[in-house]
Specification:
Blueprint lengths: L2 H10 L5 H8 L5 H8 L10 E4 L9 H17 L7 E5 L5 H14 L4 E3 L6 H11 L3 E5 L8 E8 L7 H13 L11 H7 L2 E3 L2 H12 L7 H4 L5 E5 L5 H11 L4 E4 L25 H10 L3 E5 L6 E6 L5 E4 L1 H19 L5 E6 L5 H8 L3 E5 L3 H14 L3 E7 L3 E3 L9 H16 L5 H12 L1 E10 L5 H14 L4 E2 L2 E8 L4 E4 L5 E2 L9 E5 L4 E6 L5 E10 L2 H19 L1
Parallel strand pairs: 2-3, 2-4, 3-6, 7-8, 7-9, 12-13, 12-14
Antiparallel strand pairs: 1-5, 4-5, 9-10, 10-11, 14-15, 16-23, 17-18, 18-19, 18-21, 19-20, 21-22, 22-23
């Protein structure tokens, strides 16, 4: 069936609702738009689904959500695990609740109990609920920090981490083989609730989650020591952190939590920001105004599903500076290690970072004899390391993070958690305030110890129908004709994680990466800088990470600019 035939089928099907038909009728005769919506199905990968909310097979809507859930239900029934049930959560985005209830209805029709939250929850609460309720799987409806027109569908397995690759492949195959209308079972949501096959998750799960978060404090009394003077500004960016983050901060003793009222409003249109991402400087504008008014030294922002967190801290001049994900992760890890060394380090401690995360962490761990694991990009790989250690019963996880503002302390969840990170950030701010230091001052202390590390990220968007092919071509071109130097600095090591090779350029020796196969290229220059290239798993873009270090901030930023000029030519 070609895209025009698919379009006509949706227009005439008695299984398509009138509002969707009206939306499709409005694009009649627009071949490019019809092709965009129906040329293919939205791809289901290890990160689930993510796409623009609109009618069509290549988009997020109740029909593609139902089809994906049917694929997950098929997997669960094939394994004979229907009695375990599935936990479901959703964020503040437009249609998130509708998609969550659609998924629950499909599960119920397939004989699988659906445990659904009664309102929006942070992503880590879903991960925790899967483990707490011992369900076989979980579904979270969210597009994280994407723009308002997007939504997404994340599937989790029984360990609380996102689906492992083999299960994701099974679900993807099932989706590809199933007709989006004829092969998808569904039932009435309210009737399924009345029949007890859809159940609302009790408040006790929230309480258990909060208790687990608070238990991760490394210096529980430090906030109360400075509670009278410590002032924190917080914004959930119209999202799911609006309730749990302030609640946890209050429980650990914080007295002065000033929230950005305009952004406490739950609204999937994100009216105060163009892009609800704590990596974007502009989202802090309202927070800065409030912080200046209340004389706060720290602003905390969580994204719409409250799995990522960004901060701003005052520098020596009193100006607010946004700290990067790498800076915050390095600060948190150093603080956690320092606090544990004062009170007693867990036996055989280890930390985890991704391969695109700052190597300052490598130096910190080496200095303190902490085992450090490097994993592929994606928090599921951090969860996988934790799971392997749990199986052996050896070593203790103290912290894991990725450069894209995702952090986790504790093993109660297997996804990044902005709630626990917000608590630890306040605890760390309290600790440094006792030394008359801000977090910017603390970051300067790390630079003084380890040298200057900084990073640059280039996002090469490849929208349109040929976007995927253009992304493939760029990666293939780099494999077939790899660079030998970057900005005049010789490349001494090339890693190809897709082909599982590490090439020592000088000796010609090839070894294994030791990590799962992934479409990632990794170059190391003679001065130890790193450039990593990979297609995004959630957006139509190639991401290029530049990780550099030098003896001054000016020198390292000059190197990054020089590298960027080279990587920009790759697109041309």
């Amino acid at each position: 069936m070609n895209y025009n035939e698919n379009y006509e089928r949706w227009l005439t099907s008695d299984k398509v609702d009138d509002a969707t038909k009206k939306e499709l009728a409005a694009i009649a005769g627009n071949d490019e738009e019809i092709k965009l919506r129906f040329i293919k199905s939205l791809e289901f990968g290890t990160a689930g689904l993510r796409g623009t909310m609109m009618a069509g097979t290549n988009a997020m809507n109740i029909y593609t959500v139902a089809q994906a859930t049917q694929g997950l239900a098929d997997l669960i029934n094939q394994l004979g695990k229907a009695d375990r049930g599935v936990a479901i959560a959703y964020d503040s985005r437009n249609n998130s609740e509708l998609y969550a209830k659609t998924a629950a209805s499909v599960l119920a029709a397939n004989g699988i109990i659906a445990h659904i939250f009664d309102s929006l929850r942070p992503t880590p609460v879903l991960s925790f609920a899967v483990r707490e309720l011992r369900t076989i799987a979980g579904i979270n409806i969210t597009a994280s920090h994407n723009p308002k027109q997007y939504n997404g569908y994340k599937a989790y397995w029984e360990d609380g981490a996102q689906l492992p690759p083999d299960h994701a492949a099974t679900v993807s195959k099932s989706i590809a083989e199933a007709d989006i209308f004829d092969d998808v079972k569904t039932t009435d949501f309210d009737k399924a609730v009345a029949d007890g096959i859809i159940k609302y998750i009790p408040a006790s799960v929230d309480e258990a989650y909060i208790e687990n978060v608070i238990a991760e404090a490394v210096n529980p009394g430090i906030i109360r020591q400075v509670a009278d003077s410590l002032e924190i500004v917080y914004t959930p960016l119209h999202g799911a952190g609006y309730k749990m983050v302030p609640e946890v901060l209050r429980r650990v003793g914080l007295k002065h939590i000033d929230v950005v009222d305009e952004q406490m409003v739950l609204d999937g249109n994100f009216p105060t920001v163009a892009y609800p991402n704590p990596e974007v400087l502009e989202i802090f504008e309202l927070g800065i105004k409030l912080a200046e008014k209340v004389h706060s030294d720290l602003i905390i922002a969580t994204d719409p599903d409250s799995d990522r967190v960004g901060i701003m801290s005052r520098d020596k001049s009193g100006k607010f500076v946004r700290l990067t994900g790498n800076q915050v992760g390095a600060l948190l890890l150093d603080y956690i290690i320092t606090a544990y060394e004062e009170k007693g380090m867990p036996e055989n401690p280890y930390a985890i970072k991704t391969i695109v995360t700052t190597d300052m962490v490598t130096k910190i761990c080496s200095d303190h004899n902490i085992k450090l694991h490097n994993v592929l990009t994606g928090f599921k790989f951090i969860g996988e390391v934790i799971k392997q250690y749990e199986k052996t019963g050896h070593d203790n996880y103290i912290f894991g993070f990725e450069e894209s503002y995702g952090y986790l302390k504790g093993t109660y969840a297997r996804d990044k958690d902005a709630v626990v990170a917000s608590m630890l950030l306040c605890e760390m701010a309290a600790y440094y305030s006792t030394k008359d230091m801000t977090l910017c001052d603390a970051m300067q202390g790390l630079y003084d110890r380890y040298g200057y590390y900084d990073e640059g990220v280039a996002n090469i968007y490849m929208d349109g129908l040929d976007g995927i092919e253009r992304m493939k071509k760029l990666m293939n071109d780099l494999r077939e004709t790899p660079p030998t130097e970057l900005a005049g600095r010789r490349i001494i090591e090339r890693r190809d994680y897709l082909n599982d090779t590490v090439l020592d350029v000088d000796t010609g020796k090839i070894t294994s990466t030791g990590l799962p196969s992934s479409n990632v290229l990794y170059y190391v220059t003679e001065c130890g800088d790193v450039i990593v290239i990979r297609p995004s798993g959630t957006e139509p873009k190639i991401k290029i990470y530049i990780l550099a270090h030098d003896e001054s901030l000016e020198a390292v930023r000059k190197k990054i600019d020089e590298y960027k000029k080279v990587t920009d030519t790759w697109v041309d």
